[in-house]
Amino acid sequence: MLVAGLADAVMVRALCSLLRQLVSSDSNKALLVDAGGLELLARLLTTHCASPAVLEQALGLLTNLTLRNPEAAEQVGMYFVQSPPINQCSQTAG
Q1: Is residue 49 in a domain?
Q2: Is 39 inside any structural domain?
Q3: Which phi and psi (to 5°) does residue 23 adopt?
């Protein structure tokens, strides 16, 4: 069900908004990363790169995830620098 909904920008925006709020709590940050949240977020950024509403929530999620969490910031840096989803987006959109 969740995978089917990932094509819907409205649902993805709501999902990112919810996760953005949840990771405001430091105890939830590691849970999201350990559950494969970075991979999912990269996929969402690539799929919905033309949606400013999704990008706003997804990038806000990344910001909250890395705030006061150097371990998550390092993983985000490594994951998104090695295979930047926004670069993939610009290649497919152009």
Answers
A1: yes
A2: yes
A3: -80, 0
Question: What pTM did the predictor assign?
Answer: 0.83
Decide if 4 is inside a domain. no
Instruction: Determine contact, residues 58/44, Cβ cutoff 8 Å.
Output: yes
Residues 80, 47 contacting (CB under 8 angstroms)? no
Residues with Cβ within 8 Å of 7's Cβ and at least 6 positions away in sequence, in order, are 47
Please tell me the distance from the alpha carbon of residue 54 to that of residue 57, in angstroms, as a whole number.
5
Gap between the Cα atoms of 29 and 37, Å rounded: 10
User: What's the pLDDT tens digit per position in 22-72?
Assistant: 999 999 999 999 999 998 998 898 899 899 999 999 999 999 999 999 988
Strands (E), 36-85: none
Burial 11-42 (b: 16+ CB within 10 A, else e): ebbebbbebbebbeeeebbeebbeeebbebbb
Alpha-carbon distance 71 to 7, whole Å? 30
